[in-house]
């Protein structure tokens, strides 16, 4: 813990940790030492970790990287961060992210962007988003592991951009209680770690049934680590043709082919599959996620949390709402709220929101059909490219940024588990990731397949 705290101080330029909690860390580390001495050391005992700023942590700033939550210190602890603390993990502080987890480059954060520890010459790169601080911190060895959240790829894309492992569990595996809501039917917390084994250990500690989240599954949490045998003989791995996009860079094609060959060499059976509605996933996601966000973000009204705008004489409650939200929300969040309220409005609900929900059902059915044909896991690239330069996409057409999520959002729409595993370097020497998608609730099997690919 002390070494990590020193590393964090030395690595301020990465912008990964946005609230540091050394006192809490040292206290928990001492408690962990005592537990180890007493012979009562749970799975994560004494392991220094970072917590994404989206998780509410009792008495510690939890701002979701938004100015509107400035100074907000929750009275309660999220179930996931509590589970980790109960398992002995030591929180070092809170990690940078895109504002309300909306973004793919960590550049919408009110704290300013985090930086990828990987560089090309002197060019600074994005660590990805929205869990960019988590990815940067783990990749730079500031902590041993970090929590992330994934609504449309926010664990898997930054993991791929920084050469680490990121697992989005099945929807319902981790409690959403105390995690600031973005799009409630898509949001899931998950581990971001150096290795698949670490992801298995951390996953087991994070997951639980929680009566405080009505979508949390009433299922036993398996010992995921014990499932890492590396034996994938006879497993059927599907390669979906729809993920072979036009204009896909050759090195991504190559990465995918190499990953396929590795699984085959390990004894898996490779089959070509079709997920016919894939091309509608991104537009459906960018209707559903903003719709849910616009509703979830209605609570930031200047009354209950954080920031309240200064008012002029004669201003009433409407002006207070308007000024507070105009000042407190950044441009990407405002864009999402506007899109969301538009697609939910009486005149456009059927044309957009309802249609997107139908598309979502078809996307889920595509996966159901493939799994019904005995496919065990699906292999795809995690991202369409390696990490891009900071500032490069920020002011471009927002749709360019949204295209980063093309391989990841399907998994959230279908509620499935997905993992990004480091799979080599591109021509410039930057990390690339492969994604494995598994059957619902079979994270153990998925982790084992990822283990064979590692
Ligand atoms: N990049 C996607 C978005 O901006 C995904 C975000 C996420 O998974 N939290 O919505």
Give a short summary of the structure:
With 454 residues, the protein is an alpha/beta fold. Helix content is 36%, strand content 14%.
Describe the structure.
By secondary structure, this protein is α/β, with parallel strands linked by helices. It has two domains: 2-232 and 384-453, Alpha-Beta Complex (Amidase signature (AS) enzymes); 280-353, no CATH class. The protein has helices at residues 2-10, 22-37, 79-86, 132-139, 156-162, 196-206, 250-265, 281-296, 317-328, 331-344, 349-372, 398-402, 409-414, 443-453; strands at residues 17-20, 48-52, 90-95, 145-150, 165-168, 188-193, 236-240, 269-273, 377-381, 418-425, 431-438. The protein has an eleven-stranded mixed sheet, with helices on both faces. Helix 3 (79-86) links the parallel strand 2 and strand 3. The longest helix is centred in the last third of the chain and has 24 residues, at 349-372. It is globular. The mean pLDDT is 97. Glutamine is lined by residues 101-104, 130, 150-154, 182, 289, 405. Residues 1-447 form the Amidase domain. It comes from Actibacterium pelagium. GO terms for molecular function: ATP binding; glutaminyl-tRNA synthase (glutamine-hydrolyzing) activity.
């Amino acid at each position: 813990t002390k070494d990590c705290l020193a590393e964090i101080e030395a690595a301020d330029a990465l912008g990964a940790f946005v609230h540091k909690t050394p006192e809490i860390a040292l206290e928990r580390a001492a408690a962990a030492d005592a537990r180890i001495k007493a012979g009562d050391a749970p799975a994560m005992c004494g392991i220094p970790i970072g917590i994404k700023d989206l998780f509410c942590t009792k008495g510690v700033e939890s701002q979701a990287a938004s100015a509107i939550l400035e100074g907000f210190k929750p009275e309660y602890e999220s179930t996931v961060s509590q589970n980790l603390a109960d398992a002995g993990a030591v929180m070092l502080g809170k990690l940078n992210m895109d504002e309300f987890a909306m973004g793919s480059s960590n550049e919408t954060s009110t704290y300013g962007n985090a930086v990828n520890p990987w560089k090309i010459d002197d060019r600074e790169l994005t660590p990805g988003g929205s869990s960019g601080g988590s990815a940067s911190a783990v990749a730079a060895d500031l902590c041993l592991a970090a929590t992330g959240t994934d609504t449309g790829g926010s664990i898997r894309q930054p993991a791929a951009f920084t050469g680490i492992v990121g697992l989005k569990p099945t929807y319902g595996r981790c409690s959403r209680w105390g995690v600031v809501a973005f799009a409630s039917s898509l949001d899931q917390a998950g581990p971001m770690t150096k290795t698949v084994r670490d992801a298995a250990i951390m996953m087991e500690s994070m997951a639980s049934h929680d009566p405080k989240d009505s979508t949390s599954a009433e299922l036993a949490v398996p010992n995921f680590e014990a499932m890492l045998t590396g034996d994938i003989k006879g497993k059927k791995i599907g390669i979906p043709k729809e993920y072979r996009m036009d204009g896909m860079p050759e090195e991504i094609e190559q990465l995918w082919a190499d990953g396929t060959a590795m699984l085959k060499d390990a004894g898996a059976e490779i089959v070509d599959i079709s997920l016919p509605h894939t091309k509608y996933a991104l537009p459906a996601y960018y209707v559903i996620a903003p719709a849910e966000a616009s509703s979830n973000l209605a609570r930031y009204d200047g009354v209950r949390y954080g920031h309240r705008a200064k008012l002029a004489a004669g201003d009433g409650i409407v002006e207070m709402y308007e000024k507070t939200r105009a000042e407190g929300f950044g441009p990407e969040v405002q864009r999402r709220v506007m899109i969301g309220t538009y697609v939910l409005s009486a005149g456009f609900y059927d044309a957009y929101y309802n249609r997107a929900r139908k598309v979502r059902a078809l996307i889920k059915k595509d996966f159901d059909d493939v799994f019904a044909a005995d496919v065990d896991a699906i292999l795809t690239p995690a991202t369409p490219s390696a990490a891009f330069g900071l500032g490069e996409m920020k002011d471009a057409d927002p749709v360019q940024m949204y295209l980063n999520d093309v391989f990841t959002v399907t998994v959230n729409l279908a509620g499935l588990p997905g993992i990004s595993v480091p799979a080599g370097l591109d021509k410039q020497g930057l990390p690339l990731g492969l994604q494995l998608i598994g059957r619902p609730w079979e994270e153990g099997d998925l982790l084992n397949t990822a283990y064979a690919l590692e």
